[in-house]
Design a protein that fits this description.
Nucleotide-diphossugar_trans, 9-stranded mixed beta sheet, transferase, two-stranded antiparallel ribbon, Spore Coat Polysaccharide Biosynthesis Protein SpsA, Chain A, globular, Glucosyl-3-phosphoglycerate synthase, alpha/beta, EC 2.4.1.266, 410 residues
Length: 410
């Protein structure tokens, strides 16, 4: 059970009691009469072959309050796209699959690229961006939920808890972020958030000052959560990062465009476990180091727009401050783990922090050499202003793929 502590301007919705899932679904169906709901599932084809995805689909069959499900399918050939159509066909919702590697959506992407309105780098950020675009084009909902497709501990009431703050007409929230405890195999997970993002934010507060933005980020219990809900009209003006800075950049965008009192975080699971990225100190351009680097650069760019001046000396000081903050947190995590009967490998945790501290220097150097670099994909508001028929093109590509009976035939 959670407490009821409110740690700042971001409203925290705790799971103080275990609500009856049927009662929660009944409320969500009532809300849906005023605020129709779409759920976005950004996924790789390989995730369709996992037990987690099968569990998710079975759970969504019970989510009758969801009007539409939009699946963003990456890394799929024609036969795999056909399998995806079959995989999702029994869902009761209006289901549309964006075959991102298919010729029709690639053609749309080429037209966007000709106008400097898209990025070629594939990834979750670009996948989510296209799914948001299709959802806007469909005009079927005023509430959008997004969650990952590798959740091993998925429960049927997870999307209801996630979208409740946005779907409830009694609330005026524009954005809600899911949070949870990351535990698997008897040990704490979530290392990038625990061992990098949290101590880095707190180190930045010491080095550059306790800005409102850093205090805002520090309010979130799990800033890297891939689970979020947003009002559709808010999504129209949202820029999305194409790299691993996606989650932090979305928090930055919400801070830039909206008052913090319209933002919330919601407890959506007792325990949350999904696919883990292995920590390998030798992998400088992949794995956790790549993720941490993209997140750090996203934070540096945001602070620079607010007037922070970075120098090589700043990053050296930040590295030392981060290292001390991370080691202090490891001691706290160790106590918390032991209290809950969990294992924690302190040597591995400290080794991870040593590698991540070097990421601060390399990410800082990259920022200094490329101060104007931006991973953001433009908002759909900007895209539509440049290409007035883009939503029609996007919708037509998705519908034509769905109705094409010759896909995959040689």
């Amino acid at each position: 059970m959670a407490d009821f502590h409110q740690g700042g301007p971001i409203t925290t919705l705790h799971r103080i009691l275990d609500r009856n899932p049927e009662e929660l679904a009944y409320e969500m169906n009532a809300f849906a009469r005023q605020r129709r709901q779409t759920l976005i599932l950004p996924c790789l084809y390989s995730e369709l072959e996992t037990p987690a995805m099968t569990t998710i689909v079975e759970g969504l069959k019970q989510a009758t309050y969801i009007d539409q499900i939009v699946v963003g399918l990456d890394r799929a050939d024609a036969q795999q796209y056909l399998h995806a159509r079959e995989f999702f066909k029994d869902l009761p919702q209006h289901v549309r699959i964006l075959w991102n590697d298919g010729p029709r959506l690639r053609s749309v992407h080429d037209r966007l690229n000709e106008n400097n309105l898209a990025r070629y780098e594939p990834g979750k950020g670009r996948n989510v961006w296209y799914c948001l675009g299709y959802t806007l084009a469909s005009g079927r909902s005023s509430v959008i939920g997004i969650h990952d497709c590798d959740i091993a501990t998925y429960t049927p009431d997870l999307p209801a808890k996630l979208m409740y703050p946005i779907a409830n007409p009694a609330f005026n929230f524009a954005f809600a972020k899911g949070y949870y405890a990351r535990v698997a195999n008897g040990t704490l997970k979530g290392r990038v958030c625990r061992l990098f993002v949290t101590p880095l934010i707190r180190a930045l507060k010491q080095v550059v000052g306790k800005t409102d933005f850093l205090n805002y980020l520090d309010c979130f219990r799990y800033a890297l959560s891939g689970e979020m809900a947003i009002r559709t009209d808010v999504a129209y003006g949202l820029r999305v990062a194409s790299d691993w800075g996606l989650e932090v950049s979305m928090l930055s965008e919400m801070y830039r465009n909206h008052t913090v009192h319209r933002l919330a975080q919601v407890d959506i699971a007792d325990i949350y476990d999904h696919k883990h990225r292995e920590f390998d100190p030798a992998q400088k351009d992949d794995g956790l180091s790549r993720m941490a680097s993209d997140i750090a650069k996203s934070l540096f760019r945001k602070l620079a727009t607010q007037g922070t001046v970075f120098t090589p000396e700043t990053f050296r000081t930040l590295k030392a401050t981060y290292y001390r903050a991370a080691l202090d947190l490891i001691e706290q995590y160790r106590a918390d783990a032991l209290f809950n009967g969990l294992k924690i490998n302190r040597d591995e945790e400290e080794n991870c922090v040593e590698v991540l501290s070097e990421v601060i220097i390399s990410a800082g150097q990259h920022y200094l050499e490329n101060p104007l670099e931006s991973p953001f994909i433009p908002s759909w508001q900007r895209v539509e202003s440049a290409m007035g028929d883009i939503f029609e093109q996007l919708s037509a590509a998705v519908e034509d793929d769905l109705n094409d009976m010759d896909i995959g035939k040689v």
